[in-house]
Backbone:
């Protein structure tokens, strides 16, 4: 396909900004949506670096699609910037698990169209994780092994990491991420998600999803091709919990 020099340059300018900051302004959104050539070029540039363009009403985002992408945030980078000294992959798995639970709590079922709540309190987030941890602990050993193989998640390591943390809520002054507690760990996860522009800290221990997060969740987390059925598994456990309480 033939593109004019003007379109190629304009698309590259937008891509260059995305490569530097991973986000653009609303003018770029309007061009991406209105101009087929610029949209095609940007999608092509992103594909070449194993990434995709995600657009919301106000911004374009460059999101790594695979671990091969140079824009992918590695486990080692997360350990260095957010987790305590001596953190292991188990801490990373727990961070991912806590993130999935947070995202899932905003939706009432697998493949929901829109969030069903405006915010989530940290205390409720912790309670949701605790209940799912107890359900994982209650699973038969063979079932747990099967689920580990199916989802490539080390569920036992995740549970052990959570159990090893105490559930004492320290004073605000001590919430530095250095204290090994469930509350301070979730504070670290929240800080990571805020920095990635996936959640907003609304104060009063309330967290809200950003438009970027909503778009990514709808496009990837709700698609089995990408989430490998992990949301289905989580919602099935939620359903079993609800049925047991009836």
Residues:
């Amino acid at each position: 396909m033939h593109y004019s020099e003007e379109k190629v340059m304009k698309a590259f300018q937008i891509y260059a900004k995305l490569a530097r900051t991973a986000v653009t302004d609303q003018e770029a959104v309007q061009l991406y949506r209105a101009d087929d050539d610029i949209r095609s070029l940007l999608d092509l540039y992103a594909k070449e670096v194993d990434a995709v363009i995600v657009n919301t009403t106000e911004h374009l985002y460059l999101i790594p699609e695979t671990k091969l992408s140079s824009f992918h945030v590695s486990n080692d980078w997360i350990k260095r910037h957010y987790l305590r000294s001596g953190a292991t992959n188990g801490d990373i798995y727990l961070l991912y698990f806590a993130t999935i639970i947070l995202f899932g709590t905003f939706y009432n079922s697998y493949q929901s169209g829109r969030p069903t709540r405006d915010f989530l309190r940290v205390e409720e987030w912790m309670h949701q994780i605790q209940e799912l941890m107890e359900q994982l602990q209650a699973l038969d050993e063979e079932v747990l092994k099967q689920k580990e193989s199916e989802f490539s998640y080390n569920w036992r390591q995740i549970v052990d990491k959570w159990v090893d943390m105490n559930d004492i809520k320290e004073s605000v002054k001590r919430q530095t991420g250095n204290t090994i507690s469930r509350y301070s760990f979730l504070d670290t996860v929240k800080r990571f998600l805020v920095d990635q522009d996936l959640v907003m800290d609304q104060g009063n221990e309330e967290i809200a999803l950003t438009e970027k997060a909503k778009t990514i969740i709808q496009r990837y987390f709700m698609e089995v091709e990408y989430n490998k059925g992990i949301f289905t598994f989580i919602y099935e456990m939620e359903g079993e919990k609800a049925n047991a309480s009836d």
Q: What stands out?
A: The chain has a mean pLDDT of 80. The radius of gyration is 20 Å. The CA atoms of residues 131 and 241 lie 9 Å apart.
